[in-house]
Design brief:
The protein is built from 14 helices and two strands. The protein has 361 residues and is mainly alpha-helical. The chain has a domain of 237 residues: Cytochrome Bc1 Complex, Chain C, CATH 1.20.810. Bound molecules: protoporphyrin IX containing FE. Protoporphyrin IX containing FE binds next to helix 3, helix 5, helix 6 and helix 9.
Length: 361
């Protein structure tokens, strides 16, 4: 058996050079040693792979038609063996992806890892952030219940306010005057084909650029100190990554067990007494739009498009505006303050939107 294994190994080695590949993948030096702070990117890849697997399993039963989407989702929940678990894992996995993308962005921001020579890694990362949010938005419609239908209606109305491309984007996504079969078909194709393809391509580019520039490493310590503590990617960082993936898997599974997905009534163009509301990670924006300054046509444009758009542009420009090579966050008070204000702002707005919802219920 061993001899056969050796023969197969030698055969492949001779053709593709497994040793060089292994050296490239596993022997990447990490200045200053392995850290828990570096696990977020790998955990994001793990969550994405699990989303792809659970998503494919769901597609064995889900029917992307306005007449059958709701019934097929109910069938998955109530009739298919472990269907409720797969769907609930997929649902909580999407929230975990958003939480992890914020954790990863915070880590690279606080560690100053966006600075020269990693500007391109940061820019591709921002595109990946957009894809993660687009996954959440398009997936939300697929169960075709009241929550799905109305969150999408409100979301598309908000997009409509974008200058120049808004009208086209809203018409393209809706595919008709009100959300219907065309909307569902388009959201489905975007969710299961366009976004996964784009994410795989961009994540590959992100990793290629990351490997070309090399990991930023800790923000403190002299080059000699860092060199003395250097680890290879394998085994210490790999084990930390695997442990973090295990913990995330357990958390998502537990959430799926204690809070499984339940649908509201089937989508109708009449909201009845249902208050339309987006998924929790868009709630901060929803809450912002409740402020008086953001009421009216212009106010809504300001709150929903102009401010988030300018914020994203600022993030794009960040590595080019902040050219100071200092990476130690304790010596970058403005960066620390900006990060804290954004995080506290998003948390306060999200919590107040949730409290507001309970009050309305
Ligand atoms: C699906 C989303 C993403 C995936 C799968 C992903 C994956 C990764 C991985 C595996 C690494 C290498 C190790 C690490 O530090 O974790 C990495 C590094 C990096 N990522 Fe991401 N990332 C994503 C989104 C983002 C976003 C949203 C940003 C920022 C806007 C970003 C910016 C960076 C930067 C600057 C590095 C270099 C870190 C360093 O050198 O220490 N990434 N990413």
């Amino acid at each position: 058996m061993n001899a056969l294994f050796q023969q197969v190994y030698d055969f492949v080695e001779e053709r593709i050079g497994l040793k060089t590949l292994e050296a490239k993948l596993m022997k990447e030096p990490i200045k200053g040693g392995s850290r828990w702070a570096y696990v977020f990117g790998s955990v994001l890849l793990f969550i994405f792979i699990m989303q792809a697997i659970t998503g494919m399993l769901l597609m064995f039963y889900y029917i992307p038609s306005a007449d059958h989407a709701y019934a097929s989702t109910q069938f998955i929940i109530h009739e298919v063996d472990y269907g409720w678990y797969i769907l609930s894992y997929h649902f909580w996995g999407s929230s975990a992806m958003v939480v992890m993308v914020f954790a990863h962005m915070s880590q690279v921001f606080l560690w100053g890892a966006y600075k020269k020579p990693r500007e391109m890694v940061w820019l591709v990362g921002l595109a990946l952030f957009g894809l993660v949010m687009a996954f959440g938005f398009t997936g939300y419609l697929l169960p075709w219940d009241q929550r799905a239908y109305w969150a999408t209606t409100v979301g598309v109305e908000i997009m409509d306010k974008t200058p120049v491309i808004g009208d086209f984007l809203a018409r393209f996504l809706k595919g008709g005057p009100t959300p219907g079969q065309m909307t569902l078909s388009r959201f489905f194709v975007i969710h299961v084909m366009i976004l996964p393809g784009a994410l795989m391509g961009l994540a590959g580019l992100h990793l290629f650029l990351f490997r070309s520039a090399g990991p930023a490493g800790p923000f403190r310590g002299t080059p000699d100190e860092l060199k003395a503590k250097t680890d290879f990617f394998f085994p210490r960082q790999v084990w930390k990554d695997i442990m973090a993936m295990g913990v995330v898997f357990l958390i998502i599974s537990t959430l799926a067990l204690i809070e499984p997905v339940q649908l509201l009534e089937q989508a109708t163009p009449d909201p009845g007494d249902y208050h339309p509301e987006p998924e929790w990670y868009f709630l901060f924006l929803f809450q912002l739009l409740r402020w008086k300054v953001f009421s009216g046509e212009f106010g809504q444009f300001l709150g929903a498009i102009a401010i988030p758009g300018l914020f994203m542009l600022l993030l794009v420009a960040l590595p080019f505006i902040d050219r100071n090579p200092e990476r130690n966050i304790f010596k970058r008070p403005i960066a620390l303050l900006c990060w804290a204000v954004v995080m506290i702002g998003i948390t306060v707005l999200t919590v107040s939107a949730i409290l507001n919802r309970e009050f309305l219920d």
